[in-house]
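S., here's the first fold you wanted:
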Amino acid sequence: MESINLQEGMVITVTELKQNLGKYMDLVEAQNEVVITKNGKKTARLTPYITDLEQYFLVRERALNDQYGGKKVSYEEFMGIYEKSTLRMEYINGEIHLLASPSIVHQEILGRLHLIFTAYFKEDKCRVFFAPFDVHFRKKEFKEPDVMQPDLLVACDLEHNVTEKGRYMGTPTLVVEILSESTRSKDMIDKLNTYRLSGVREYWLVDPKQENILVYEFEDYEIGKYKTFERGRVAQSYFFTGLSVDVERLYEGLVAGEER
């Protein structure tokens, strides 16, 4: 389903709605939202009419975001919520972040990267995993870990770091995130910081919109080196000698999507 673009909602009182119903109906028809308050509390919302199915999913998504999105909880509280939920979610800096379904462009790129990485590590002790795959990142000098689902990761410490329930509790050596408009800031700021402070050695940011790959190397929990690889170049790993991705071939022939 395509994303539904609505302009930022206007907040009005019940009295204002009664006195200017025609005005606010015109605003809704022009793809604006109107939120209605009663006694200072938000009680209802007027939204542009779309199909019944799209309306159902839109309302459901908002309800889930109101319940969980951006909610401050402890690590133990998050795990209690997560274990009982069928939703994909991450826990970053004490807040719950719901994960949307990936686009077709995202999945095409992830599939191509997985083939490249799997071929490189086929004779190695390191293993390649892709989302959804939970990782508990324990940041230096932070009490509670972040729990995230990197798009792709390389784990070289599986021995002694897999629980009886089959959960991975180690620290990946290399992590890859594929950017989208909804995750760009989180991937480039919050996740970079978490990976850096957790002992990850290398972080790849794959940007379908700019059609490039940004590679960070972390040393002693700080950014040691970084480099951007554009189309026509080959992205090279700092940590794994010979691990590379032809940027031109990675983005060639992708189905047109929102990230581009």
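And the second, which I think is the more interesting of the pair:
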Amino acid sequence: MKKPVVSNYELQCDQWRQRFLAMDQGALLRRLPELKVEGDYLTLRHFGRRLGVHRREGSVVAPDDAEPVSVNTRLNVYTLFHYCRDGARRTGEWLPFAQLKGASPFGPAFQKTVTEVFAATFSGRTEALEEAFRRMGGVRLPVSDVGFEVKGFECIPVRFHFWDGDDEFPAQANLLFDRSATDFIHVESVVTIASEGVLRLAKLAGVTLRSGSF
């Protein structure tokens, strides 16, 4: 009988799980005040969804729903725990992804696989998008047709801006991050956080991603 094939992402995720098990959890709780101890789990929220990390096994679950936690979401949690710096604090200075520290090489890919996918997915669907943001616990922002600030994690908020298209121009979008995002997590993980945010918005809105390479 053949053994089930395990993806490279799952193998990488298990390596990160092992790293978590070797961490000083007391120090981790001090670095990330959003973490809560609830029985056998450390809990936090990722785009409004409560997650629990088992303190002795390292597994990641979603206590409030029956759906499995995706490998990308698990990686986001583990890399947050690993990269968060002592004394990291939000600055209140909002930047597009490409202007974050070390992000410029990944800027074109971010535009294609995150920003353009977000815009195309919700073209003509502003009401569904607004409802998805509200269900995620977002805070309304001015400027764009639909703009909300949501919490990728409590320490890594994301500002989504969306302008719907018309007969002449396609829908447009932009995502902004606090300059401190890369003090909490590796810059490549910021891409994964944004991708997971778009996926969760699509799920909450009941729509399918229009294009992209998630």
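Why I say that: Residues 187-205 form the longest helix (19 residues). The mean pLDDT is 94.

Talk tomorrow,
H.
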